[in-house]
Structure formats: structure tokens, C-alpha cells
Design goal:
Elements (H helix, E strand, L loop, with lengths): L5 H9 L3 H13 L22 E7 L5 E7 L2 H12 L6 H6 L2 H5 L4 H4 L2 H4 L2 H15 L1
Antiparallel strand pairs: 1-2
Helix pairs in contact: 2-3
Length: 136
């Protein structure tokens, strides 16, 4: 299944009220590829999140990075799904030059969600960038 484009999700998101925005994020999280429990380790855990979030990179044959991710909280899982839409299946170099924060800015997550839910977003992005720089 092909992931929806970030712009398509934003179009829908902008027309929703707060409760429906939560549902949209939860739905995005449900659509993430399954991450095997064996990959949910201390090494793949994103630090500084109120919920547990794991991110595991894989390298495709063409050299692009494909991330598996999961969280034990439904909305947080939706947030990491949104973050991954900005970087999924790009090269390490492309990810390094991607303005992830800028791509997510129109969603105004800091004002839409509690600070507990959004405090880990910079750490998710930092982990993805660190991973990308190792493969760039």
C-alpha cells in the first residue's frame, strides 16, 4: 500500500475539528508497517518522549532509507507516522537536507496537541537525522 502524500493529509487535516484531527493521527499510526517486537530495543528507543517510540532504519537496495516505527500510544504513533512521511524512502543525503520541521509546521502540532504529546517530536527528528547522516 502506498502511503498518502503529506500534502494530501494536510488538506484533510485543515478541514477537521480537534477530535477528528486526533482520529486522523490515530488512523495514520494504524497504517504504519508492523515493527517486529524484536526491533523494539533500547537502541531503537527515541529518548525524551512521554510515550515509548521506536524507530528502526533499513537500507533498501537502491540505497534509500526505509524506517519502521512504533509507539505504545496511538496518537504518538500517528505523530511518528507523520514525521516518517517527510523522509521515507529517501537517501541519507536527501533526508539531511529535508526541512522536516518546515514540512510539519502547517499541522501546528504544538497548538493542536498537549505538550506531553509533542515534546518528543524534536527527538524523533534528531534520531532520523543522525541515522541519515550515517548513511549519507
Amino acid at each position: 500500500m502506498t502511503a498518502p502524500a503529506l500534502t494530501d493529509i494536510l488538506e484533510e487535516y485543515e478541514f477537521l475539528d480537534a477530535d477528528d484531527r486526533y482520529r486522523l493521527l490515530i488512523d495514520l499510526g494504524r497504517k504504519l508497517e508492523d515493527m517486529p517486537d524484536a526491533l523494539k530495543t533500547d537502541a531503537t528507543l527515541v529518548r525524551g518522549c512521554s510515550a515509548s517510540v521506536w524507530v528502526y532504519p533499513t537500507v533498501r537496495d537502491n540505497g534509500t532509507l526505509h524506517f519502521l516505527a512504533d509507539s505504545n500510544a496511538a496518537i504518538t504513533k500517528g505523530i511518528i507516522a507523520l514525521v516518517l512521511l517527510t523522509v521515507q524512502d529517501k537517501s541519507g543525503t536527501e533526508i539531511g537536507t529535508t526541512d522536516i520541521e518546515g514540512a510539519l509546521a502547517p499541522f501546528d502540532l504544538k497548538n493542536q496537541l498537549s505538550s506531553n504529546r509533542t515534546q518528543g517530536i524534536p527527538n524523533m527528528i534528531a534520531l532520523i537525522r543522525q541515522t541519515a547522516s550515517r548513511y549519507a
